[in-house]
Amino acid sequence: MKVLQRMVLGCTLLFAIPVTAEELKPTYWQDLVPQLTTVEDPFSALDNNQLYDLGTIARFRDAQKIKGFTPSKQSIAEIEALQGGLERAGIDVTALFLQRELITEQRQKMATLPNQKILNKTHRLAGFITPIEMQGNKVTQFFLVPTAGACIHTPPPQPNQIVLVDYPQGIELVSLQTPVWVEGGLYNQNVTADVNYSDGASKVDAVYQMSAENVENYQANSME
C-alpha cells in the first residue's frame, strides 16, 4: 500500500512540475505597457528648422490661452510669416497641431494605463526595491521598479512601470542596487505613496499592485 501511495505521489508531482514552470514564466517590464494602436508621427519627417518654427508657433498659441496676454502686432506678423513659410513648403500646420494632440493623448495613455491582458494573474517580475514601509530591518511594502534607485536617486518611472508590492513577512534589503524576483497576483489599482529619501519625501504614482507570495534575491539562471 505504501509503495502504491509513493507511486501516486510521484506521478502527481511529475505532472505538477510543468504547470508550475508555466505559471512562473517571467513577465517583463514592457509587458506592463498597454498594447495600443499607435498614431503616426508626422513630425519625424520634418527638419530641425521646421520643427523650431512649429515650436515657436505652438508657444505663441499656448501664450494666447493665458488670461491677459495681448500679443503685439509684430509678434502676430512674425507668427503669420512662419506659418506661411511652412505652408509654402507643403506643411499643413493646422493638421499637424491636431495630430500633436492625438500623439500627446496616446503618450499619456501609454504611460498611465495598465495592460488589461496581464491583470488578475500570477506573475514573476524582476526589479529593484524602493522601500515604503519597514518593520525592523525588513521591507514589508515597496515599489518594484525597473531601474536601481528609481524614485529616490532618479525621477520615478511612468505609472505603469511601477508596481506597489505588499509583502507582510518582509525581506531584508541589502541595498537599492540589489535586484529581486517578486511573485504574486498582479492587479490594477491606482495608488499614490510617499517615498522618503535623505532630504525629503516625494509622492509617486503607480497603476499596478501586487500581493507578493514570494520575494527573493535575483539570480540570472532563475529566469528559465
Structure overview:
This protein has 2 domains: 71 residues, no CATH class; 110 residues, Protein of unknown function (DUF3299) (OB fold (Dihydrolipoamide Acetyltransferase, E2P), Beta Barrel). Helix content is 33%, strand content 32%. The chain is built from 4 helices and 6 strands, in the order αβαααβββββ. The chain is elongated and about 65 Å long.
Chain-wise SSE layout:
Blueprint: H1 2-23, E1 26-27, H2 48-64, H3 73-88, H4 93-112, E2 121-135, E3 138-145, E4 163-172, E5 179-197, E6 200-217
Parallel strand pairs: 1-2, 4-6
Antiparallel strand pairs: 2-3, 2-5, 3-4, 5-6
What attributes does this structure have?
224 residues, OB fold (Dihydrolipoamide Acetyltransferase, E2P), 2 domains, 4 helices, 33% helix, disordered N terminus
Strand content: 25-35%
* Helical/strand content category: alpha/beta
CATH superfamily of the largest domain: Protein of unknown function (DUF3299)
Q: How many angstroms separate the termini? A: 37 Å
Mean pLDDT: 84
The CATH architecture term of the largest domain is Beta Barrel
> Which H/E pattern describes the elements?
HEHHHEEEEE
- The share of residues in helices is 25-40%
